[in-house]
Amino acid sequence: MSGLTRHTQLRKKDVTVIKLGGAVLQSESTMDGMAKAIGYGWSRGGQIVIVNGGGREIDALCKRLSIGTAKAGGLRITTPEVLEAVQMALSKKSMEIALSLMKQGVPAVPFPAFSAGTVLCRRRALPIDGQDLGLVGEVVSVNGKVIDALFDIKAVPVVYPLGTDDSCAMYNINADEVASSMASELGASTLLLMTDVPGIMVNSSVLKSIRYEEIRTLLANGTISDGMLPKVNAAGSAVMSGVGRVGIMDGSGPDSLSAFFREGILNGTEIQV
Ligand SMILES: Nc1ncnc2c1ncn2[C@@H]1O[C@H](COP(=O)(O)OP(=O)(O)OP(=O)(O)O)[C@@H](O)[C@H]1O
Ligand SMILES: [Mg+2]
Question: What sign results for the dihedral spanned by CA atoms 133, 210, 16, 263?
Fold first, then answer.
């Protein structure tokens, strides 16, 4: 990603960017528990941005529509048909999260990342494992104006990762990458990547923390694969661009998020400079 300019000095409060993976929030009660935890952080004056994924939902919808799916390097190969399913699944998820938050009294606003030029991307040109990824975008820049306006009215943005390029063509972007880019641009104090595992696993144990330079070893020796690849890269870029705390955490229930908002504890893997 290039072209990001941080404007931390404009902000008076702490910004927390929370990425909710598609693998989490699989039941209404889990979603409501998560919304309660987020609502607590919001009620304490926190400025919170949610970015949602939707991998499981996209897979299920593609199956229903008899559209084949494939991934390379943890990223979804996105044909025009897959992009349609991605649009449906991601927007639905974003609306569901927003509704759960609203049930908790939190004013939430679901919208695609391209809205009013918030996330500009370009087509990811490089093939991965020899495969062209199709309509997959990579973030070029983030404009924080819409988010700032929502913060001004104490609303919580629930962003889903569909970006556009400078010709307004739409692309599917990995949600971890969007969350990381937003956290960097917003000068966020924290980026939490909530997923379906308790953190980065090495030989069946969760790493408590990992330094940026150690990430490359894990990538090279095959410890990290599939969806954890873009996640670890996203976490690494956020930490290197100055985001204070970056965690990969268990999002299968609200406990980790509650512990973070109530006690400042980061349960999971903390990525450090
Ligand atoms: N070393 C590792 N530690 C933990 N998980 C790993 C590791 N290597 C690969 N993974 C895989 O990464 C997955 C998490 O990424 P995945 O993309 O599936 O979920 P997500 O990003 O939370 O959801 P979404 O892609 O829908 O936003 C885990 O479920 C696990 O299978
Ligand atoms: Mg993922």
Answer: positive
